[in-house]
Design goal:
The complex is a heterodimer. By secondary structure, chain A is an all-alpha fold. Chain A has nine helices and two strands, in the order H-H-E-E-H-H-H-H-H-H-H. Chain A has one domain. Chain B has a domain at 54-178 and 194-225. Chain B is 77% helix and 0% strand. Chain B has six helices and no strands. Classes of the chains: A mainly alpha, B mainly alpha.
Chain lengths: 253, 248
């Protein structure tokens, strides 16, 4: 195969300055290459997202509908029950990010690019980080829609407390890392639309429990110091995933 | 012109130790059952229902032990892939899931009498349910994979991922239920006869689980050998066709 792209080839940006494929030693250089390739792949995915916004639109519509279902499904004195607002927010977030997770590798697969991205000279890590960032972006966009909707439908007393935003951020990071790993492991699995949630949801329970707790304490006007252990739990969860999932991704795909 | 002979399969000996382990396991389980039924007094507070405790706790030990073993062997298979580690990991996860199912059936039966409810979000209970669901999902992942090698690695990776997260699930459920009144711990072993029953049941269940794992391991290894032989035979057939083509 052609080892070095032509000088005007945009792929050249991803290579080391002398144009060699980076099999050179040096941890810093390898990390720099991984970061460069991650950005290249991320830019590619963003271009794809910008050209065809179907997935994003459908996921956002699903999220809105899901909150509405919660409002209809749980009544108190004939009106939507305000106390389920934290649960509605987090469960909707979990459900709708799963839809994005299921489509995360779809474009690469359909174009036949997945194999090449996974087995490039730089390893699978750039693809993992690029996809995790995409999944995180999807999660952030869904959250941006969900927060006002939940506030609107459930007349939640206060929004945008720093604790809630911190919990949402940590939850989205964890979901993005775990979702990317599970989605990649399922590329060749039959019935994966059904199986993926079965693997993903039990593993995300710590995030769900902690996120709902933090949100409930914050919205309920509780003692905000009580949120600290929960946020700590989410940080530990994210740290475990950050350590393990890129390695497992590279090993198992 | 001589054609190469087809590869002859290595003979597979049915190991004597395996048969022996199964006989010992059945003996121990029967002894535990007999001891529980006839020699152990019923619990003062809970009555005869408490007797489910012996096999319930023993199944919990077996589930924990074999799922941890399965995750450990999966990690080994990921770091240094070997057919032995693969067969061991899969067998251990299956046996762990089997005793998890027994745990989850006996648990609510006992909880109904001792705690007065079929289900409560007690941390260990919740963790057992979630871990059982995870183990089943990991086994399904392997089964539904269209590529055996990729499915094997994916299953191993998920098993490795699930191990540390299970600890976090336990912690989360424990913190979550922090405000609830603490659940009454019924049962326990109060007499010497109960202790004998308990350890007999633990020994019986663990021996049975080990024998089942050994049996399943043997079966999976034979399956691997079978696929290997099929490949070798296909290669031999190809070579024979080529040789025949050259000589004619």
């Amino acid at each position: 195969m052609n080892a070095t792209p032509a000088p005007d080839d945009p792929r050249r940006a991803a290579l080391a300055p002398d144009g060699s494929m980076a099999t050179r030693d040096g941890l810093a250089q390898r990390w720099a290459l991984t970061a460069r390739l991650t950005l290249v792949l991320l830019r590619r995915d963003l271009v794809i997202l910008a050209r065809s916004r179907d997935t994003l639109g459908l996921v956002l519509m699903f999220a809105a509908l899901c909150v509405l279902l919660f409002a209809f499904g749980f009544l108190r004195e004939g009106a939507a029950a305000a106390e389920i607002a934290p649960g509605a927010l987090w469960v909707t977030l979990l459900f709708s990010t799963t839809l994005a997770t299921l489509r995360l590798f779809a474009a690469d697969e359909e174009a036949g690019a997945l194999h090449h991205c996974l087995h490039s000279a730089a390893g699978a890590s750039p693809l993992f980080f690029a996809k995790a960032l995409m999944q995180g972006l999807f999660g952030a966009l869904i959250t941006a829609l969900l927060l006002p909707l939940v506030w609107l439908f459930f007349s939640a007393p206060a929004v945008a407390l720093p604790q809630v935003l911190a919990a949402l951020g940590l939850g989205l990071i964890g979901q993005a890392l775990l979702g990317t790993l599970v989605a990649a492991l399922m590329v060749h699995v039959r019935l994966r639309e059904l199986l993926l949630p079965l693997l993903l949801y039990p593993l995300t329970t710590p995030l769900l429990i902690a996120g709902v707790k933090v949100t409930a304490i914050s919205l309920g006007g509780g003692d905000l110091a009580q949120t600290t252990p929960w946020l700590g739990l989410m940080v530990v969860f994210d740290a475990v995933l950050l350590l393990l999932s890129p390695w497992l991704f590279a090993r198992a795909t | 012109m001589t054609l190469p002979n087809p590869p002859s399969p290595r003979p597979v000996a049915a190991p004597l130790g395996l048969s022996l382990a199964i006989v010992v396991a059945i003996g121990l389980v029967e002894a535990a059952l007999a001891h529980i039924a006839f020699a152990t007094p019923p619990d003062i507070a809970l009555g005869v229902v408490q007797k489910i405790f012996y096999f319930h706790v023993a199944s919990a030990f077996a589930m924990l032990l074999f799922l941890v073993l399965g995750a450990g062997l999966s990690a080994i298979d990921l770091v240094a892939p070997s057919d032995r580690a693969d067969a061991g990991a899969r067998g251990a996860l299956e046996v762990g899931a089997l005793f998890g199912a027994i745990l989850l059936v006996t648990g609510p039966l006992w909880a109904r009498k001792s705690w007065g409810t079929w289900w409560t979000f007690e941390p260990r209970l919740t963790l057992s349910l979630l871990v059982e669901l995870l183990a089943l999902a990991v086994l399904m992942l392997r089964g539904l994979s269209s590529d055996a090698q990729l499915g094997r690695r994916a299953g191993a990776a998920m098993a490795v991922m699930a191990a540390p997260i299970s600890l976090l699930i336990h912690l989360a459920v424990k913190l979550w239920g922090g405000n609830h009144p603490s659940v009454l711990q019924g049962g326990g072993v109060q007499s010497a006869a109960m202790r004998i029953s308990f350890w007999l049941a633990v020994a019986g269940v663990l021996t049975l689980a080990s024998a089942l794992l050994a049996l399943r391991y043997q079966q999976l290894r034979l399956d691997q050998r079978h696929r290997e032989l099929e490949l070798t035979f296909a290669a031999w057939q190809l070579r024979r066709t080529r040789t025949a083509g050259e000589s004619s």
